[in-house]
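Hi support team,

I've been running sequence recovery on a batch of backbones for a student project. Most finish fine, but this one hangs at about 90% for roughly twenty minutes before it completes. I'm not sure whether the input is malformed or the queue is just slow. I've pasted the structure tokens below so you can try to reproduce it. Let me know if you need the job ID as well.

Thanks,
M.K.
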């Protein structure tokens, strides 16, 4: 049984076909199950790569101050590297960004 895509509501004229073609394209190119371990592992990382590419620019411009955004990002990466929980990572990033912003306002 083939997968049936839900109807998409186009944002403006002509966009619906392009959105649908971007979702259907992998299914038309890959008719059989992927057996290559390398290709399977590559396809498994695509969602993470796309999410990172979409989120990273907004992280750097989220505070309105580039240095404080870099400090918050660095703090989050360090805390995540040491396997801290998500609330600890988020709180540490916020506190680091706020500390740098306050220091920049004072200096």
């Amino acid at each position: 049984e083939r997968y049936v895509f839900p109807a998409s509501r186009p944002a403006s004229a002509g966009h619906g076909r392009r959105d649908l073609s971007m979702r259907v394209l992998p299914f038309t190119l890959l008719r059989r199950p992927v057996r290559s371990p390398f290709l399977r592992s590559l396809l498994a990382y695509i969602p993470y790569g796309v999410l990172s590419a979409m989120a990273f620019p907004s992280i750097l411009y989220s505070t309105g101050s580039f240095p404080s955004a870099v400090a918050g990002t660095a703090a989050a990466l360090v805390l995540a590297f040491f396997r801290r929980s998500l609330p600890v990572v988020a709180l540490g990033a916020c506190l680091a960004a706020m500390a740098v912003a306050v220091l920049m306002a004072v200096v």
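--
Follow-up from support: It reproduced on our side and the slowdown came from queue contention, not your input. The radius of gyration is 21 Å. No action needed from you.
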